[in-house]
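Below is a filled-in request sheet from our internal design queue. Each sheet records the structural input a requester submitted and the sequence that came back. We keep these sheets so that new team members can see what a complete request looks like end to end.

REQUESTER: design group, bay 2
PRIORITY: normal
MODE: inverse folding
CHAIN LENGTH: 521
BACKBONE (tokenized):
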């Protein structure tokens, strides 16, 4: 389960027909109710202090109804004798989307107001992009004007030799242009990061403001098994990312067993059973059995063991015990004398000498036995598969959020049922397209076509929950709201509109509000 990014897709079929009209009717009713409230009621004290508008009464009332319906659908899923009942799956998914749509719409007004207040709405950002683009063009115009002035000061005639003053002036003009362009690009890059971070923070705050009224976040512990080896900043990032998921969901995921969290420059992933490899250094011990029988030590073909001392004492690993009959002999005066003579000849032309050592082992009847072994000069590295463990790799907070979402949905039907049903409904009858090598996606109206990937048979995994969490928490994919994407540091600035997918956003909010919630009804 990996994160990948790509643009593409077609218009969402779910925005047509009955669903769209029902959604528009609900929004119209909410606006009318808000207008009525504005004439009949006063703003609550808490809204007066924060500057926020009162929540529309129609949405507030609907919230109670959709929350109840989602809880009932969840209870039906848990109690179903047939866990593969498609009607129950469809009803559960629809209930989650309906409840999530209410939470989304309650947050929308606050998000739009905050973005406008901070000058971060799409219109303001497009204007800011145009201003940076104008500065890039102005730098080019300045260079053109300087070149024209230099040409007037140092006119060139045919056959004239190179003019050092003219060449020097042109070089200075180019250097000023490149410095100006670099300064504008650096400022624009910094501003782009500020815009993206601030917009994501505003959206995240608004969504979790509503979700926190539904259930608890940030109070459950989930500690990776390699927690002590993680950097302090990565440990803090893991705790912050875990807090994006409901406490009960986190507790359930932690109970699945050990999980490693590793920073990696490679493609981020979640693996339910990744082989964990241990690299160890083995030490050469010489074959004494061969040496005493043939009057010389082998130059090659000796044994490599994990610990010569434990090998000789009979307390080593399987590899040590296998080598022990060939690499140890009883410590007698004769054996000690013969091995010393052999070693003297062996080390005479060797840069790294071998050396004779002694150990005490126990015989089969528990009696001590003194033995001789010879430590060789060579070592080698050996990599073994020590165990398997669930594993998350990441490169930043966004990829960690994505991959932890895969952990949350691991063997979790309360997430998987909804995402699989959502994907089935949105992609049925549409052709598959190659995404990468053996990866295929079904391209619908998703904000990114990678979300249409469904190649995890027999699991609860899709890319809908993980990509949706990136959008919700980090503003990825235009936040699923259709926010424009731009890079202010590029001279040719053309804001790219991301595709909005309000239904997908509602699904994610519904899952966070409902899945793995304790039965309170």
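RETURNED SEQUENCE:
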């Amino acid at each position: 389960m990996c994160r990948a990014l790509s643009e593409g897709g077609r218009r969402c079929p779910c925005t047509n027909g009955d669903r769209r009209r029902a959604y528009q009717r609900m929004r119209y009713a909410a606006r009318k109710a808000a207008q009525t409230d504005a004439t009949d009621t006063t703003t609550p004290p808490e809204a007066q202090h924060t500057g926020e508008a009162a929540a529309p009464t129609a949405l507030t009332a609907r919230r109670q109804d959709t929350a109840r319906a989602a809880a009932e659908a969840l209870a039906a899923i848990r109690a179903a004798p047939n866990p593969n009942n498609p009607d129950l799956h469809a009803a559960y998914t629809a209930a989650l989307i309906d409840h999530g749509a209410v939470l989304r719409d309650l947050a929308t007004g606050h998000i739009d107001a905050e973005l406008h207040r901070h000058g971060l709405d799409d219109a303001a950002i497009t204007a800011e992009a145009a201003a940076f683009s104008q500065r890039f063009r102005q730098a080019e115009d300045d260079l053109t004007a300087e070149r024209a002035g230099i040409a007037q000061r140092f006119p060139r005639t045919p056959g004239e030799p190179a003019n050092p003053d003219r060449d020097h002036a042109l070089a200075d003009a180019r250097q000023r242009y490149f410095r100006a362009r670099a300064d504008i690009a650096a400022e624009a890059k910094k501003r782009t990061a500020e815009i993206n971070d601030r917009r994501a923070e505003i959206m995240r705050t608004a969504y979790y403001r509503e979700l926190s009224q539904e259930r608890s976040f940030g109070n459950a512990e989930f500690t990776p098994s390699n927690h002590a080896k993680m950097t302090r900043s990565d440990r803090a990032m893991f705790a912050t990312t875990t807090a994006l998921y409901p406490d009960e969901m986190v507790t359930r995921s932690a109970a699945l067993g050990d999980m490693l969290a590793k920073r990696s420059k490679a493609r981020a992933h979640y693996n339910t059973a990744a082989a964990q490899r241990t690299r160890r250094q083995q030490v050469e011990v010489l074959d004494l059995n061969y040496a005493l029988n043939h009057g010389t030590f082998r130059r090659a073909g000796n044994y490599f063991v994990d610990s010569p001392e434990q090998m000789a004492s009979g307390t080593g690993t399987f590899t040590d015990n296998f080598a022990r009959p060939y690499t140890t002999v009883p410590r007698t005066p004769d054996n000690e004398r013969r091995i010393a003579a052999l070693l003297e000849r062996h080390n005479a032309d060797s840069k790294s000498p071998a050396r004779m050592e002694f150990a005490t082992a126990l015989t089969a009847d528990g009696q001590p036995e003194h033995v001789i072994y010879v430590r060789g000069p060579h070592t080698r590295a050996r990599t073994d598969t020590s165990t398997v463990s669930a594993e998350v790799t990441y490169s930043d907070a966004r990829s960690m959020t994505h991959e932890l979402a895969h952990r949350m949905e691991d063997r979790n039907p309360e997430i998987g049922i909804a995402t699989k049903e959502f994907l089935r409904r949105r992609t049925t009858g549409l052709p598959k397209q190659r995404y990468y090598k053996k990866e295929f996606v079904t391209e619908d109206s998703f904000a990114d076509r990678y979300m249409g990937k469904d190649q995890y048979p027999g699991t609860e995994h899709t890319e809908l929950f993980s990509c949706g969490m990136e959008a919700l928490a980090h503003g990825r994919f235009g936040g699923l709201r259709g926010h424009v994407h731009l890079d202010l540091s590029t001279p040719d600035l053309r804001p790219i509109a991301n595709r909005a997918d309000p239904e997908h956003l509602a699904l994610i909010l519904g899952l966070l509000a409902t899945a793995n919630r304790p039965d309170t009804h």
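SHEET NOTES:
- Residues 278-385 form one domain.
- The chain has four domains: 15-117, 126-185, 198-263+392-514, 278-385.
FILED BY: M.R.
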